[in-house]
Amino acid sequence: MRTDTPTISERSDRLDGIGTALHRSHKRRMRFLVFSPGDANKMSTWSNVPYFFTRSLEHRGHEVVRVDIGAPLLLKGIYDGTWSLLRSIGITRTRHGAYHSRIHYWYAQRRIEHALKRFPEHHPFFFTYTFGANTQGRPYTLFCDMTFRKAIRYFAGRRPDALERQTVKREERNLDHAERVISLFPKLADELGQHYGRKVRYYGNVVNVPDLRAGARSLERATSGNSIVFVGKEHYLEGLHLLLEALPLLNEYRREPVHLHVIGLTRAQARVNAQAHVTFHGYLDKADPGQRRTYYDLMEQARLFVNPTPKWGAFSASLEAMYLHTPVVLSPYMEFTRTFPRYGELGYFLQYNDPAELAVTLARAFDDRREWIKKALAAHAAVKDMTWDNYVDRFLTDLNKAS
Q: For the whole model, what pTM was predicted?
């Protein structure tokens, strides 16, 4: 490891605090051609990131053309349905799917080349590492969280299979030829920097709350509440099942039982029987005003945000909870602890993947009100400046420096 060169995250931190002032000094109106795996006008696309990023660019007077390069619904239904069935009966463990297929690559690449020809003055920006390289030789920016190879190794603990290697090779080509590579996470950005050098960027992270005006009101609501909230889809089932085992242990001797709200899964998807003091809300679409209000009401009223899934605990939703004065209960996974070095002040962290330990941790959080308030205030303070305005200002400042 080199000791004479700052890490990606250390170099990126130098942009913090000066991005807004520098960007406002630039009068040049910029044009962006944004490609995303889904409609960037929808908050439901990739954890709301393309939606907030492109809206923030437009609010600053820049022009944004959005191109959806997600897999068509029919292809997803047939292709992903088949692979899901094969995985469920144990024939394969592959993460290969419609988005990574050759059919979709041909389809998406045609859309990309057409858009590049139609908008020759726009800077191409991809919310994926799976696409980017083009026959026109246009410089482009890539923005994602982790590579496909890294996701397979980190979450599945294995090497890519033959089908997955096709996507890995395409991603490596895209990363090689990119003008700029942005990662949402510091450790992953440093790992990319070891392979792709100084073109890798880390600008911090962001809170995906549309109305960033949470104050003492949300703290007061949570203080009087007797609920906890879990947010996650099927890849977080391990954490949810652990929580469902811990909840009866927690409530066994409590005068007022703690109620769990599960967002992102139905009971059928969670593969569990009915259980007392648990409500499944399924997926709540933030693009729908009513569902969005339900989502944030549940987050604000919860005493704790709980997702103890090992290796990853719904990072984006964790930040939303923290902004709303809701301390987190997590396993201390890599990117959270790197993003928040003093993470112990922001919530409660498990040493073991054990229902009894989780029940004791939850009881402590409910019973020690003074400690809970301290953590709630620290959690909010840690993320209150992680706004999309600040994030996009850092990106624009960096882009203007390079041009």
A: 0.89
